[in-house]
Write a structure and sequence with these properties.
Structural class: alpha/beta
Number of helices: 13
Helix content: 25-40%
CATH topology: Amidase signature (AS) enzymes
Order of helices and strands: HHEHEHEHEHEEHEHEHHHEHEEH
CATH architecture: Alpha-Beta Complex
Strand content: 5-15%
Shape: globular
Distance between the termini: 30 Å
Radius of gyration: 21 Å
CATH class: Alpha Beta
Length: 457
C-alpha cells in the first residue's frame, strides 16, 4: 500500500514517531499525481520544488521534539481561486495567466502555520462561475468514479484530487454549493462552515455575501482537521466516538422527495441513510422547512448582482478573454437592480430566522445535497450553462454550516446526504457524520485504477 493511502491520522502518527518522513510521504503523493493527473486534470499546478522545501521544514520540526499539530507534514491541495504566494494563482482564467499573488490567502497562511505541505493548485471553473467549460485555459477535471461524468463545480479539481487519492484533504470555496456538490458527485466529504468562520482574505470573490471557504476530504475526521487548522482551533477527539445518542435529527424529506428533477435512487439512498442514523442513536423526526424555491431565488439574485458588480469593468474591457459561459453568467447580473438585491437580502434574513426557529427543536437537519448523481460530461459541451439541481445555496444565504457525506450509490455513482446545524454547533455535524461513516461503508469505496483515457477527452 502506498503511503498516500493512509488517512491523515495514520500518516500523522507515523510522522510523529519518525517511522516515515514528510518528504517520503510527499514523494508518494507526487508519484500518484504524476500518474493520475494526466487522466483526470485535477491539478493545474503541481508545486514539487516548493512542496519539498515545506516537507523538509516539517521534518525538522518533527525531529526537534517540539509539539506538532496533526497536519504537520500532510500534503494539502488548494483551489486555484485561493491565493498562494509561492505558486501561480490564475482563478481558472486566461486573463490571469501566470499570475503570482504577493501574499497567501488567510486560510493558506493558517494551513502553513499548522505545518501542512501545500502540494499544488486544484482546477476551478473560471472565476468560480459555471462549467465545466471547454474554452478556458485548463481542461475540465474529470470524476474519478466515472470520467464520462462531471465532478461538479466549482471546486472541481479539489474534489477529483481527493476522490482519486491524490491527496486526503483539499481546500475549496462554496458560494452556492461548490464544495458540497462536487463532494456529493465524487463520493467524498465536503464541509461548508458557518459564514465568516474562515476569513475570505486572499480568495477571489464571486458573491461576498454568499462566499465561504471549505474543506473536501476523504473522511469527516479529515475534513474537521482541515477546518480546525484554518480556524486555529483544536478538535475535541471525543466528537469521533462513533455514536450519536440523543442527537435530534430533523429529516427535510419534503424538500426534494417530490421534485420532478429528482434522479433515480436518490430518495432510496437518503431514506436508508436516515434510517441508519437512527440505529446510531439519533432521534428522527420529519420536518417541514420553508419552500426551497424561496431560498434559491433570493440567493440567485444576490449572487448575480454581486458578481456583476465585481466583474463589470472586466466584462466591458476583456470579454474576449473569458469563456463564453463565464461571460454570459456574469453579464446576466446587469439585469439585477439594487432594489432587487435589497429585497433578496431581507428575504434571506427572514429565511434564516425560520431556520433558526427549527433549530430550537432539532440539533441537525438532514436533506439531499444534490438531486441527481453526477451528470454526463457530454451534456456540457455547448455554450449554454446547464442547470444541475441541488439543495445547497440556501445555506449560503442563511450562513448555516453544512456537511455533505456519501450515503449510497445509484447506477454506480455516489449520492450525498447533507447535514445542517446552527452556527456554533459544527461539532454536532462532525459527530453525526462520523457516526454515519462508522456505521456504513460508503466512504471506504475508492475508485478503481483508471486506464488511460483517449486524448479527445
Amino acid at each position: 500500500m502506498s503511503l498516500a493511502d493512509l488517512s491523515i491520522t495514520e500518516a500523522g502518527a507515523l510522522l510523529q514517531r519518525r517511522d516515515i518522513s514528510a518528504t517520503e510521504l510527499l514523494d508518494q503523493h507526487l508519484d500518484r499525481i504524476a500518474e493520475r493527473n494526466p487522466v483526470l486534470s485535477a491539478f493545474v499546478h503541481v508545486a514539487g520544488e516548493q512542496a519539498r522545501l515545506q516537507a523538509r521544514v516539517a521534518d525538522a520540526a518533527l525531529a526537534s521534539g517540539d509539539e506538532c499539530g496533526p497536519l504537520t507534514g500532510i500534503p494539502v491541495a488548494i483551489k486555484d481561486l485561493i491565493d498562494t504566494a509561492d505558486m501561480p494563482t490564475q482563478y481558472g482564467s486566461r486573463l490571469f495567466a501566470g499570475h503570482r499573488p504577493e501574499h497567501d490567502a488567510g486560510c493558506v497562511a493558517a494551513l502553513r502555520r499548522a505545518g501542512a505541505v501545500i502540494i499544488g493548485k486544484a482546477a476551478t471553473y473560471e472565476f468560480a462561475t459555471v462549467g465545466p467549460s471547454f474554452d478556458t485555459p485548463f481542461p475540465p477535471a474529470l470524476n474519478p468514479r466515472d470520467p464520462e461524468h462531471i465532478t461538479g463545480g466549482s471546486s472541481s479539481g479539489s474534489a477529483a484530487a481527493v476522490a482519486d487519492g491524490m491527496v486526503r484533504l483539499a481546500i475549496g470555496t462554496d458560494t452556492g454549493g461548490s464544495v458540497r456538490s462536487p463532494a456529493s458527485y465524487c463520493g467524498i466529504v465536503g464541509f461548508k462552515p458557518a459564514q465568516g468562520q474562515i476569513p475570505a482574505t486572499g480568495v477571489f470573490p464571486l458573491s461576498p455575501s454568499l462566499d465561504h471557504v471549505g474543506t473536501l476530504a476523504a473522511s469527516v475526521r479529515e475534513a474537521a482537521l482541515g477546518h480546525a487548522a484554518m480556524t486555529g482551533t483544536g478538535q475535541d477527539q471525543s466528537v469521533f466516538s462513533g455514536a450519536a445518542h440523543g442527537t435530534r435529527l430533523g429529516y427535510a424529506r419534503d424538500w426534494f422527495a417530490t421534485d420532478p428533477q429528482l434522479g433515480p435512487g436518490v430518495l432510496d439512498a437518503l431514506d436508508t441513510a436516515v434510517s441508519m442514523l437512527s440505529l446510531t442513536g439519533a432521534q428522527i423526526a420529519e420536518i417541514t422547512l420553508p419552500d426551497y424555491a424561496d431560498f434559491e431565488t433570493a440567493a440567485a439574485v444576490i449572487l448575480h448582482g454581486e458578481s456583476f458588480a465585481i466583474h463589470k469593468q472586466r466584462l466591458a474591457e476583456h470579454q474576449d478573454g473569458m469563456g463564453i459561459k463565464t461571460f454570459r453568467t456574469l453579464a446576466a447580473g446587469a439585469a439585477i437592480a439594487p432594489s432587487d438585491i435589497d429585497l433578496a437580502r431581507r428575504t434571506g434574513k427572514r429565511l434564516k430566522a425560520a431556520l433558526d426557529a427549527v433549530f430550537e427543536t432539532v440539533d441537525v437537519i438532514a436533506t439531499a445535497t444534490t438531486l441527481t448523481t453526477a451528470p454526463q460530461l457530454a451534456l456540457f459541451e455547448g455554450a449554454d450553462a446547464v442547470w444541475t439541481p441541488m439543495r445547497t445555496i440556501g445555506f449560503n444565504l442563511t450562513g448555516h454550516p453544512s456537511l455533505s457525506v456519501p450515503c449510497g450509490f445509484s447506477r454506480g455513482l455516489p449520492v450525498g446526504m447533507q447535514l445542517i446545524a446552527r452556527p456554533g454547533n459544527e461539532v454536532a455535524l462532525f459527530a453525526l457524520g462520523h457516526a454515519f461513516e462508522m456505521a456504513t461503508d460508503h466512504a471506504s469505496f475508492r475508485p478503481a485504477i483508471l486506464e488511460p483515457i483517449a486524448a479527445d477527452h
